[in-house]
Design brief:
Elements (H helix, E strand, L loop, with lengths): L22 H4 L1 H20 L4 H15 L2 H13 L4 H6 L11 H14 L1 H4 L3 H36 L10
């Protein structure tokens, strides 16, 4: 442990990551607004024919990039319920090198990475064009809505550490 760690643990026990503050309790109106954006994004994805699995794959990839443990856990579980197996879920982090993903999924995952790394990528024309080609305008707009929503959740969760995944078993 470094000198900045405040937790004492044994070598074999999981290390608890302490919450910093409860953003939901401190900003309830804002929290409700983010939840409403999320609900609207999910509704738009459904309306555009974006499958729950594809929506969860892009949420999972954005959450991996943002380092959001809670959202990685959540969207791994929801993607599994939507039909993903463990092999597919493990490949999300290396989707470019994996042959497990369809052209539609690959375009959505590329968009997920580019939007999540917006300050670095500025969403290049080829990424947008591939998404538009694979998903159509409505689908691309819906995936963008999902990405805006998950990136907001990731910013809240990573900064406040207000939600933590619970380990089911070892």
């Amino acid at each position: 442990m470094t000198t900045t760690d405040t937790l004492t643990t044994t070598a074999d026990a999981p290390v608890a990551v302490p919450a910093r503050f409860d953003v939901e309790a401190l900003t309830p109106d804002f929290y409700a607004a983010v939840a409403a954006v999320d609900a609207a994004a999910s509704a738009e994805a459904e309306r555009a024919g974006i499958s729950p699995l594809l929506a969860d794959l892009v949420r999972l990839r954005a959450s991996q990039l943002n380092g959001c443990a809670y959202c990685v856990d959540l969207h791994t579980r929801t993607a599994r319920r939507a039909g993903a197996d463990d092999q597919l879920l493990q490949a999300v982090a290396v989707w470019r090198e994996s042959g497990f993903f369809t052209a539609r999924e690959r375009a959505a995952l590329a968009l997920a990475e580019s939007v999540t790394r917006l300050s670095e990528t500025h969403v290049p024309d080829d990424v947008a064009a591939a998404a538009l080609d694979a998903l159509g305008e409505q689908g691309t707009a819906a995936v963008l809505a999902v990405l805006v929503s998950i990136n907001a959740w990731n910013a809240l969760a990573v900064t406040a550490r207000c939600w933590a995944p619970e380990r089911k078993s070892r």
